[in-house]
């Protein structure tokens, strides 16, 4: 039973991390109608900046702040130079231009920092584990990631429902022409929203980088998962991103753990691992196809 | 179809055009491209540079896979981000069949025993049929969605195949499956680099001819109309959904056949043939060459592999420059290499 | 690296234009220089090149390419080396899955392959070949050694973990072969996995008394970092692949106390090893790993055979390789009938070094003259 709960928390942690990625993606699509494959690159940029600044200053928190700032700045720059030329283009052009950005970011990073991973450790005060009610010991740092994800979700809720910026974002989502008519500087709003998405991706990259490793291409598997999340949740919907992220995180984690165990009842461990992990790896895609087959616009379709 | 009416719309590949003469600019460029691809390896073969003949085979097969994708994206307006699924499935058909032929074990033991085969003809047929079947299932579900959702769901299906191949241990999983002996054809020696190149070249010419035939037929006109204005097609009493689905299936069959040959060329098939990077690269080739241009994939594949070989020889980071070129093409040179070489399509 | 690459490119140009000089020996090295496991390839390359430089032979040309840990890329690089550059010898591959993609086809086309790292069971057994020599180990060796050691130390309920790929399944099979007892469970992870929360939870929930794992390269670092913070308190055992100097430096204090088996240790007392360790530190300003030692031995074996025959005289060169007439940094080294090594397996412990950084210290010998269990399947 504790094993199940621990895996549930693991799934929740993956889910909150996916939410950080997916919320930016879905905002950018909802407001600007842009499909951005290069979102994973901001995840990588945030992780690299955090690792480098942490190594230079010795403080993880300074590094983290730098990571978020650098990701936001890079995001704003990319929006100004490339992305804004794509808003009125077909999706095919957006996919290809942002695919090109992935190549540029990944190979550029490899060129500058080399192919070896960088190592980033969580700060000493967040390492180690605590005993949760029920006797389960769980790493503090993973709990912190969940807390950050929850804080971001709450913050986004207030930002969108209670602030002037949020009002504009909502206006942009429901009617793109109208916000221009309201005398809002659309160009600036778009840059701001895009940079905000990049900052969240950078935050996710930095947090996960300390848990795993910081290397070129680290954003791509996460990017694909984040796309699954926003498609399941309904593209453009923050609420959908939240539910989708938790659903994908939990289903993926539980599938990976319990499917091989299930097949082990009638196979050898090595075979069970093979078959079980094959099906576990496909599980979220099967879920996505099933959801789209019944709800072609996702669970919480925003506009359109 | 009233030409003066449609000519005000955006680029319209596939609309009937006055028969292209071989001696106008476009015809000359097309013949030049094919002739270059055929003659350069011939010359290099007799000079003893086997490596470059194999490189030409690679260009030919990637071009062929992109011809398939071009039918979906360029002519059908279906932005499939998952054509690696068919490319890889074709490859795995070749790999798995050869694996069982090598081991003398059946591919399927029950309910009927299907033995492995190392004959290319059998493998090609199986690859085409299976890819068609897979595309029928994927297309039937995916074509219910449009826009970004279509892009994402095709990607999701391809990822499903990728992870399945990655984790299924019987055929090597992540490690891939080596083909120890190249599959054979009656009467010819497929191990000879030139012979194999000519087989690939034949495949490419055939797929170009099929695409050209389709787009000149009534079906092609309906497909074009489904892309440009499907309401109008529906008012004419033709449902766009089956038209698109058939085009999607044919597109997958061409890409799948290219994949089967590609596995034989490399003597190896691995999940990377199914990865989303592969899907992306095929799209890049279509775009580089020019979307919806019959010979665009050929020009794109030539450019892509040449960049990979020349830039890759100079710097490990050649994909950085590929990225820059691609960005430039998408932002500023929408008509690709063919648009630049052969001029725009007449009715633009 | 840059320089080597440009030398390689220049060479390629000259071969394309002029006829190849008969006396020159060309070695193609396909190894992993980018991605998570890149330090393995870098060390093999550096150890190999150190020995080539020391030999002073300028008729040996080494062409180096990065396989990025991708089997398909390794396969096409090997075709390039054989068809375009006409290399005499291939070497360098780190990972068993890449070796399986490249080696069987290469040796059947008449090229020699000397493995400086991977040793999958198929190549030692049913698919062995007279042109294939393994200078490192058969994949089971180090794991089997640890199995024997843990049995001897009285552990009764080990839990095992390895990635789900040929070397991973070989590793656990090798461990169980010499451990000869029941194990609590076997966990298989994805290749290249970065998050081990799920596995750690399973280990925590089991009643194991010890953990044996095989996670080479970056996977081992990620796992050990997460293991340290998990609060699970079991003694940790592994093969040297998870505890080379680069990995334990990155892991830090979490690695201290871990026992691991190796075929080489930098404090192994023999003359060839002293010369190697000193030379390597001088040339590259870091401690060598066992990968560097294997690369160094591979190059020295090639040089020793070249003293006797040119690879174009295949039979004579093969015979010269079989004699293994070189000073191995392992002290003693000989080939079994399947051209895989017969060697001692050492036990090392990770301890705090003089500078406070963790380092490996030689503890003793786990198994003497270990030989793989597949040689009987090999028909040469």
Task: Walk me through this protein's architecture.
The complex is a heterotrimer of chains A (304), B (348) and C (380). Chain A has a two-stranded antiparallel ribbon. Chain A has one domain (2-217). With 304 residues, chain A is mainly α. Chain A starts with a helix and ends in a 10-residue tail after the last helix. Chain A has eleven helices and two strands. Chain B has a domain at 57-287. Helices cover 69% and strands 3% of the residues of chain B. Chain B has 14 helices and four strands. In chain B, the strands form two sheets. In chain B, strands 1-2 form a two-stranded antiparallel ribbon. In chain B, α2 (25-46) packs antiparallel against α3. The longest helix of chain B is centred in the C-terminal third of the chain and has 27 residues, at 240-266. Chain B starts with a helix and ends in a 6-residue tail after the last helix. Chain C is an alpha/beta fold. Chain C has two domains: 2-137 and 268-335, Rossmann fold (3-Layer(aba) Sandwich), CATH 3.40.50.2300; 140-262 and 345-376, Rossmann fold, CATH 3.40.50. In chain C, 42% of the residues lie in helices and 19% in strands. Chain C contains 13 helices and 13 strands. Chain C has helices spanning 2-17, 38-55, 71-83, 96-108, 121-124, 140-152, 166-179, 197-205, 218-228, 245-251, 271-284, 290-306, 314-323; strands spanning 25-31, 60-66, 89-91, 112-115, 132-134, 158-163, 185-189, 210-213, 236-239, 259-262, 334-335, 341-352, 358-370. In chain C, strands 6, 7, 8, 9, 10, 11, 12 and 13 form an eight-stranded mixed β-sheet that branches. The two termini of chain C are 38 Å apart. In chain C, 60% of the residues are buried. The A-B interface holds A 29, 35, 82, 85-86, 91-93, 95-97, 99-104, 106-108, 110-111, 224, 227-228, 231, 235, 270-271, 274-275, 277-278, 280-282, 285-286, 288-289, 292-293, 296-298 and B 73, 79, 81, 141, 144-145, 147-149, 151-153, 155-157, 159-160, 163-164, 166-170, 173, 276, 280, 283-284, 287, 291, 316-320, 322-324, 326-327, 330-331, 334.
